[in-house]
Amino acid sequence: MSNRYHQRPPDYSIQDAEIYLSGYQLNPYVYAKSQNLIDYFIKGSHDYIRSLEPESDHTVYVGYSGIALTHFMIHLKTQRPGSFEIAKQLNNMALRRLTGRRVSFLQGDAGPLAMAAAINFTDRNDRQATEYVSRLIRLGEKAKRQEFEVLNGWSGYLYALQYVNTFITGAVPGTVIRKYVEIVLNEGMNNAHRSQSRVPLVYSWADTNYYGAAHGVAGILYMLLCSGFVSSSELHGFIGPTLDNLIQRRHPSGNYRSSEDSESDKLVQWCHGAPGFVDLLILADQVFGGGKYLPLAEDATDVVWERGLLEKGYSICHGVSGNAYSFLAMFRKTRSLEQLYRAATYFQWVLTYPDKEGYKPDRPYSLFEGQAGVLYFLTEMANPETAAFPDQIL
Ligand SMILES: [Zn+2]
Fold first, then answer.
1. Is 226 annotated to bind ligand?
2. What is the Cα–Cα distance from 362 to 243, expressed in whole angstroms?
3. How remote is the CA of residue 302 from the centroid of ligand 1, in Å?
4. Rounded to the nearest whole angstrom, what is the distance from the C-alpha of residue 242 to the centroid of ligand 1?
5. 348 three-state secondary structure
6. N or C, fewer C-beta in 10 Å, the chain?
7. For residue 318, how far is its CA from the centre of ligand 1 (angstroms)?
8. Which residues does the annotation say bind Zn(2+) (predicted)?
9. pLDDT (tens digit, 9 = 90+) per residue, 267-305?
C-alpha cells in the first residue's frame, strides 16, 4: 500500500455489485446507511452558520456560498425542509460582500450572483432573478484584468453564465457567452503565439502551465466546449489539438500531468490529474464524435479506480468524494454498472468519515475541502443518474 492511497476494493463482479446496487440505483438499505452522516453534516452546517462572522470567507470554493450551493441542490433534489431557507440566507449574506474584483463562480462574485438568479427564479421572483442576471453580466463588463482558469478566472465566469441558463433558458444571451469564449480563446492563442508553441492554446496561472481542471487547460477546454459557442474551425483547429496534446503527454501510468513541466505522477484528484479529465473527455466525445475520446475517458476512470481512495481524505477537490464523480460521470454517459459499482464502493468508503481523513482540511465545513462536499456527494447518490460535480453543466 502506498502512503498516498488505500488499496482499492475488488473489481466489479455481478455478485459484488448486487450487494450495492438495485438496477441503476443503490440498494435502498445501502443508501439508508448514509442517513446518520447526512444528518451529522446538516447539523455541522448549522453549527458553521452560527459561527460566521462578517469577514468570513463568502466564496463557493471554501466559504459559505459553498454551503448555500449545497443546500440549494439539496432543496432542488430532495425538497428537504429548511435547506432552501439556508441557501437564501447565506446567499443574501454573500451578496453584501461582493467587490467586483474576481469574476469566477468558485472564487469570485459570479458564484453568489448566479446563485441569486437561480434561487430567485426557483422562488418565483422573476423580476429579482432578471436583476441578478443583469448584475452578473455587468460584472463581466466592468471587470479589470482577470485570470483565465476555472477557479479564479474567465472560464469560471463562463460557468456562471451557463449555470444561470440551466435554470432560466436563454437568460444570458448567446452573444454574451460568445464574447467570453472569444476572450478565453484569444488568450490561449496569444500565449501560444508568444511562446512559439506548437500547441494552439496555451494558458498559465501563477506562471505555471497547469493542465488540470481547477487551474489548468482541462477546466478551460471543458468550459469552452460546453458553451456551445465555438466555431467548427476553433473546435478542430484549436481546441481539439490542444486536448490531444494533453492526452499525448499523459504519464506512462495513464494519469494526466498536473502541469506542463511536472514529471511527478502523484496526484489523482479533481484539481490535478485524471479525475478532472473525465468530464472533459466525455464532453469531447459528444462534441467531436468519432469515438476517439470515450475510450480515453474510460481509461482515466481506470486510473482513478486504481489510485483514487486517497489517504488525504474525503473532499471533492482532492479527496475520495470528488474522485467518485469520475465514475458517476462515466456511468451517466454509458449506463455501465461497473462504473456505478465503483461509485458505490466509494460511497461506502465515505461512510467511514472521519476515521480515514489523513489530512485535516483548513476549512472543514466547506464545499471543496470539507464536509459540505461530502454531503453534496452523499445526497446525490440517492439518484446517481443525475449526479454531477458542482462545476459541471448537464
Ligand atoms: Zn484540490
1. no
2. 33
3. 20
4. 23
5. helix
6. N
7. 4
8. 271, 317-318
9. 999 999 999 999 999 999 999 999 999 999 999 999 999
